[in-house]
Amino acid sequence: YPGFTLEQLKKSFHADTYCFDSIPEKECFMQYITSGKVAEVYFTGMFTSNQGDLSVHYYDPESGRIRQYYPDFLAKMMDGSYQLIEVKGDNKIDDTVVKAKQAAAEEMAVASGVKYLMYAGSQVVSTHILDDDSASM
Q: Cα separation of 107 and 39, whole Å?
């Protein structure tokens, strides 16, 4: 990642390469890693199928089964708090399964003292999301 400062490099990169699913995911990561409000940020969404330790069990209303969901990012903020972050395409925000994942993640996050944030892709690419936490869904 040419152009990153040594300080920014120290905030992340627990893998040698990150493979973002979308432009909004990459933009979210860039905003977090370059923000002075963020101590550490990790792209956890690319580690699925038991490749990583961070997953949320949720009830899938379409299949009637318990499934695992892998949020996109985990961030430790400079104030010591943590955020669990998901970036979704605008057309998926109101999807039934996405809402089920969100509800399960929020429940787990609250119980763990973590803030869960879901951002619409258009929001991430059009604003500086860390400047206004109230803009998250």
A: 24
Residue 87, helix vs strand vs coil: strand
Listed as ranges, residues in the chain with pLDDT below 50 are 134-135
* pLDDT single digits (tens) 22-43: 899 989 988 999 899 999 988 7
CA 47 to chain centre: 12
Given phi > 0 = left and psi -120 to 50 = alpha, else beta, which region is 9? alpha
The Cα 57–Cα 125 span in angstroms is 29
Rounded CA separation 58/54 (Å)? 13
